[in-house]
Structures are given as C-alpha cells and as structure tokens.
Amino acid sequence: MVKNSHQPFIMEITVVSAQGLKNSSSSTLFSHRLRPFITLSTAPPYSCRLINEDKHSHVYKTRVDDEGGLNPTWGDKFQLPIDATFLYQRHSCIYLQLYTKRLMVGQTQLGWCQIPAADIADGLLPLGSVRHLSYRLREKDGSRGHGVVNIAVKLQGSLPVVCPQRPLKSDLTVLPEMGLCQTVIGIPVTMLQAGGW
Questions:
Q1: Which residues pair with 109 in a beta bridge?
Q2: Integer Cα distance of 107 and 24 in angstroms
Q3: Which residues form the C2 domain (predicted)?
C-alpha cells in the first residue's frame, strides 16, 4: 500500500498543438474554416463510466484557435489538482476531446483520446521534469481518426517514493447503449525531447 496516497499535488498540462486535422463538415458553405479547441477532464465522457469515478471532475477548455486551421496551436496551461492515487489506479486517464466551433451549429467533435496515468507518471521523476507526449486522435466510435495532439505534462508537489507500473489493460465499463470505450485509445505516437516543439 502506498503511504500518503491522498495527498494532493498539481499536474500541469500544457496543450501545445495539434496537426493533420481534417475538417469534418459536409457543408461546403461552412467547411472552409476550422476553429478548434480542446477540453480536458479526469472524468470520462458521459458515454463511459469508471468504477468509483469522481463525478465532480472539472472540465478545462483551451481558447479557440482562429488562425491555425488544420494545424492549430494553443500553448494553454492547466493546473489539475490530483491525489497520488490517480497515478496508481490502472484505469486513471485524462480525457481529451477536440472540437471545432461552428457558426451555425455550435461545437462539433473532431476527435478524442485518453491519456493513461501510466504514460504521465512514467519518466516524470524527479518531480518538476516535463514530459512531452503526442497522441493520435480517435473518431467517435473509437476508430483511428485524423490528426495528432501534442501535450506537455509536469507534476508538482510531493509524491510517494513507490514508482507506478504500467497497467496491463484498462478496466473500463461500457454502457450498453454506447460502444465508445475501447482499450485502443491513448497510444503515444511519438515522444520528443524537451524543446522538440
């Protein structure tokens, strides 16, 4: 058992950029311009439920990039208060969703991914070091989507000495009406050295 596992610490996530996005609009009138933004949360989207999930998780949102089009950049930083148990539970993830803001229909989802806690914790010792990760986006049904999202993660605070191990599989439970939760998500596509973006 890990001592002080409920002691809070800060996970700083910088949503750096995305690349290779595809405009999913079928209307030629509104398809000329993407206005992408990203949301982050430690609780799953409404279609997935984890065992003992925190139903009061905050959703963080980047600004809308009006200029980047298919290759947007943000550089927005978010500080997520998290206790150490987040890093040690096999099913803990950051849920990232990419949207575009449409003039007439509001927001439309372009893709999503899960960032497993094991990917975040792996290589973050000593505390304060930055980990750069890139993830391929997924379609609503979990199939391979268009584009890659780039993030940087840093942990601040004091953590237990025990090092988490990468989980062998996810313990996601799928609601019967939706088939969106699959273990094929959250796979890093590249890992860059610090300053690689």
A1: 99
A2: 12
A3: 1-132
Spatial CB neighbours of 162, under 8 Å, sequence gap ≥ 6: 2, 88
Which strand (E) or helix (H) includes residue 98? Answer: strand 93-102
Determine whether 131 is exposed, middle or buried from the number of CB atoms within 10 Å of its CB (0-12, 13-18, 19+).
Answer: middle
Residue 27 within a domain: yes
Cis check for the bond before 126: say yes or no (omega within 30 of 0).
yes
Report the C-alpha gap between 79 and 153 in whole angstroms: 10
- Under DSSP, is residue 13 helix (H, G, I), strand (E, B) or coil? strand
- Give tens-digit pLDDT for 181-197: 333 345 455 545 555 55
Q: Give dist(CA 189, CA 134) in Å, integer.
A: 6
Residue 166 in domain: no
d(CA 137, CA 145): 5
Give domain status of residue 14, yes or no: yes
- Which residue range is the domain that position 96 belongs to? 9-156
Number of domains forming the structure of the chain: 1
Is 176 a member of any domain?
no
Nearby residues of 8 by Cβ (< 8 Å), 6 or more positions away = 81, 82, 83, 157
pLDDT digits (tens, 9 = 90+) for 80-132: 988 878 877 878 899 999 999 887 778 899 999 999 988 887 766 677 888 89
